[in-house]
Amino acid sequence: MHRIFQEHPELFSRVSEVLSVAFAPPVSVTVLPTDLTETRPLERRVDTLLRFDTEEDGPFLLAVEAQGKKDPAKPASWAYYLAYLYTKYQLPPVLLVVCQDRLTAEWAARPVRIGPAPWASLTLRPLVAGPHNMPVITSIAEARKDLALATLAAITHADNQDVGAILKSVSGALREVSEELAYTLAEFIAQGLGKRPAAELWRQLMAVDLSFFTSPISEEIRDEGRMEGRVEGVAESILLLLAQRDVHVPDEARQRITGCADLGTLHRWLLRAPSAASTEELFEGDEGE
Fold it and tell me: Considering only CA atoms, which of 95, 267, 241 is closest in space to residue 158?
């Protein structure tokens, strides 16, 4: 049933006509080795892999990938992961891709048809969670309902202009749970925000709203007031947050921010930056500083 195609590869064109699938006629055919065994060790790792057991649909696998930017090579890797997992575990796999950038999320969500145009034998269809579809949670009451979801939503909305309110809602909700849970979720957010401007705001919220518990990051924050360059870093974060929200910063206001040497005042402005509509609102009540 298969060797005849090696001897008469042109047979495929006629078979495809019988099956009503219009492949372009080949100009050449090459017989390739049939051994698909890996000839050398090749390390492939999915970010997170979980098995779910359900009563209605039975067990399935969930592979979770964090994707920071577009990568043309990723769809092929994801297809390999799913095929490998299905072969190894004999369970249906699902791929979830988590993104912080809307363009990356939209790119990752596009179905990838694997095969020639007339008949794709496989279609890669990841589930994608990102700023385009994750909830914007800006109230403590809403964050309290599902802290894990609120945490992931805060991370995916790291570049949202309302990120200050988003992070404030999570930090407020974390005050009401155990220190262990608060520590874990707070650290997830700190790591997830990376070096974005919102990361500095979260660090300050951890030092103020979550000062009841200790962690490597919170201890670092409390000691950083003595570190050289700390003032410049906070001032830069204020300007970045304002720029992210398209708030106009006159030269005089910019000089006032960068020239301020009082860390307490800078922290106060930093906490106002995510919601201030102007630099006047940012400085409100601090005319003498």
Answer: 241
Report which residue type is found at 200.
E
CA distance 155 to 159: 9
- Report the alpha-carbon distance of residue 269 to residue 276 in Å, rounded: 9
CA 20 remoteness from chain centre: 43
Q: What is d(CA 236, CA 243) in angstroms, rounded to the nearest whole number?
A: 10
What are the b/e assignments for 84-104, b being 16+ CB within 10 Å?
A: ebeeeeeeebbbbbbbbbeeb
Amino acid identity, position 172: G
Task: Give me the residue spans of the domains in the chain.
Answer: 44-129, 140-283
Tell me which residue of 136, 146, 206, 203 sits closest to 172, measured CA to CA. Answer: 206
* Amino acid 22: pLDDT: 80
35-81 per-position pLDDT tens digit = 766 666 667 788 999 889 888 888 999 999 999 999 999 999 999 99
Q: How confident is the model at residue 151 (pLDDT cuts 50, 70, 90)?
A: very high
- How far is it, in rounded angstroms, from Cα 260 to Cα 247? 19
Contact 276, 247 (CB under 8 A): yes
